[in-house]
């Protein structure tokens, strides 16, 4: 059965009224909680994808790499993405709403307001790039014996200057902003078009599928930027590279075949489906309890 439209509208209005004119900390909290649940579930799958991006190998080869390294290395390097993702999604949802809402209240076109809010939230997330940088190094088998733990890796990279934490910034900026725009606009369009179910199971399933479909689409669209980012961040020290030159090198190293730029995209789609499905579902359920 569907919920009456009046009930749904009343629920939305109640949520808005609790925020007042103050900083809506609830959106930041919902994003943080959703990311925590997401990372702890999807980290092993993400690590397989990372190996495929870095070495250009198939899913089975990446799986056996991790299997041969042993269970003790499986969750190695999870602290940086856990810190980065929880703060990142907190900023993503919080900054987006703090920018979008006042723009809409002042008569700005809703789609422009959403796009500006999403772009600014994506750019703000880049502040947390050092966590993503260390995650790349910790997941690379080249550095297994070099770094004792996450904090050791942070100290080691710091020896090359603060700028070393931000190696690979350009592809991250080109990924974060546009992907956030796509996520928020598509998500809200789907929420308006999809029916509202009153049973918990159907509602949860709809939320999961909504997040999963958006995640698969956007992660596949921006996959080459992640390949570029991983390649740039797998190095420590030396001159900062031109992203276009690095992209050209990857293309040539992989036999000048565009299809090889997408090694790992299948596993990435599975991870994105699981990750964004879990994230969207967790966000909506946390939001129901926190408002």
TrEMBL record:
Signal peptide: none annotated. GO terms for molecular function: NAD transmembrane transporter activity. InterPro entries: MCP_dom_sf, MCP_transmembrane, Mito_NAD+_Carrier. Its main location: mitochondrion. SUPFAM superfamilies: Mitochondrial carrier. It is a multi-pass membrane protein. GO terms for cellular component: mitochondrial inner membrane. Solcar repeats lie at residues 22-102, 109-193. Keywords: Membrane, Mitochondrion, Mitochondrion inner membrane, Repeat, Transmembrane, Transmembrane helix, Transport. It is found in: Mitochondrion inner membrane. The keyword Nuclease does not apply. Belongs to the mitochondrial carrier (TC 2.A.29) family. This is Solute carrier family 25 member 51. It comes from Brassicogethes aeneus.
């Amino acid at each position: 059965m569907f919920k009456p439209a009046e009930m749904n509208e009343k629920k939305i209005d109640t949520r808005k009224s609790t925020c007042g004119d103050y900083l809506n900390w609830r959106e930041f909290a919902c994003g943080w909680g959703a990311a925590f649940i997401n990372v702890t579930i999807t980290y092993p799958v993400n690590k397989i994808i990372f190996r495929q991006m870095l070495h250009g190998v198939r899913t089975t080869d990446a799986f056996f790499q991790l299997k041969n390294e042993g269970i003790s290395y499986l969750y190695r390097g999870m602290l940086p993405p856990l810190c980065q993702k929880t703060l990142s999604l907190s900023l993503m949802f919080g900054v987006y709403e703090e920018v979008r809402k006042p723009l809409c209240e002042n008569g700005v076109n809703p789609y422009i307001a959403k796009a500006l809010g999403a772009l600014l939230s994506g750019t703000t997330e880049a502040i947390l790039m050092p966590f993503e940088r260390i995650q790349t190094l910790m997941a690379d088998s080249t550095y297994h014996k070099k770094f004792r733990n996450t904090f050791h890796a942070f100290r080691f990279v710091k020896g090359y200057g603060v700028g070393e934490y931000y190696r690979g910034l350009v592809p991250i900026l080109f990924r974060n902003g546009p992907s956030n725009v796509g996520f928020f606009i598509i998500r809200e369009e789907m929420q308006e078009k999809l029916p509202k179910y009153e049973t918990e199971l159907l509602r949860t399933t709809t939320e999961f599928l909504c997040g999963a479909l958006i995640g698969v689409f956007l992660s596949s669209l921006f996959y080459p930027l992640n390949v570029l980012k991983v390649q740039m961040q797998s190095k420590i020290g030396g001159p900062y590279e031109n992203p276009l030159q690095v992209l050209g090198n990857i293309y040539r190293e992989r036999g000048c075949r565009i299809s090889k730029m997408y090694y790992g995209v299948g596993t990435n789609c599975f991870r994105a489906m699981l990750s964004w499905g879990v994230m969207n579902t967790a966000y909506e359920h946390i939001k129901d309890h926190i408002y």
